Amino acid sequence: MIKFLLIIIIILISLALLTKGDSGIINIYYNGTVVAELHNVSEFNLIGDYAGGLKVIGAEYNLSNGHLFLKGNGTIYVYYRATLPKGVIQIQENNNFTISIYLPTNSTITYVTPQPYSFTAINGLYNITFVNVSKVILLYVEAPLPTQKSESTEYQLIILLLIADIVLISLIVYFFFRRRKEARKVELEEEENTELVTDVLDERDKLVLNALKDGSSTLAEIIRKTNLPKATAYRRLKKLVKLGYVEEVRERGKIRYVLKKKD
C-alpha cells in the first residue's frame, strides 16, 4: 500500500513539473492546420501566415498583424489555416505551451530546438512534442513518395507495343509484295519485248486476232475481250500490224484495227 502511494505521489509531482506555467496545447500540422487549446491566455501569436478559416470558441477576439487578442477567461479553443514556409515550422509565443508538430513519416528532420519531449509515429504522421516551451524551431525535408505504375498504365503500354508490332509487320509484308510485283512486272516486260522481236505468233497474239475476228476493233474492245493488260494488248497490236496481220485505220482522230484480207 505504501509503495502504491509513493508511485501516485511521484506521478503527480511529475505532472505538476511538466505543466508548471503551461498555458495550453498547440497542435501544428505540416499542411498548415493549427488547433490550439488555450488556458487563461489574452494574447496568441499566429503561427505562419494566416490563410483563413479562423474559429475561436470561448472568447471574443480581435485579429491584428498576426496577433490574436482574446477577451475571456478559462479555456479557449482556436482553429485556423496557415501558410508555412516549405520545410520550416517556427513558433514564438508569449506563454509556455505543450506544442505538438505533426509531419509525414517520409520527412527527415534536419534541425530542431529545443530538444523534443517525445517523438512518436501514428497514422502515417510523426508527432514531435515539446512541453512547457514558448519557442520552437524545426526544419525538415520531405522526401518524395515512391511512384507506382498502375496496372492500367502497364496494359496501355503493352497494347501500344502490340500495335507498333502489327504496324511494323504490315509494312514489311506490304513492301515485300510490292517488290515482288515490281519484279514480276519487269520480267513480263522483258518477256514481252523478247516475244515482240520474233515473227512467231504466241498465245497472246492469237487472243488479239480472235478478238478482231469476233468484231472487236478498238483497243478498249480488245482489252475487254482478251482480259490482257492495256500495255500488252497495245504491243501485240503493233506487232500484228508490223507483221502484216492487222491494219491500223485512223478515222476522225480515232484508231481502229481490222484484219488484213488475205491475197
UniProtKB/TrEMBL annotation:
What GO terms in the biological process aspect are recorded for it?
Answer: regulation of DNA-templated transcription
Q: Which UniProt keywords apply?
A: Membrane, Transmembrane, Transmembrane helix
Report what the protein is called: Putative membrane protein
| GO molecular function annotation | DNA binding
Domain HTH iclR-type residue range list: 208-248
InterPro entries linked to this entry = ArsR-like_HTH (IPR011991), Tscrpt_reg_IclR_N (IPR005471), WH-like_DNA-bd_sf (IPR036388), WH_DNA-bd_sf (IPR036390)
Organism of origin is Sulfurisphaera ohwakuensis
Residue intervals passing through the bilayer: 155-177
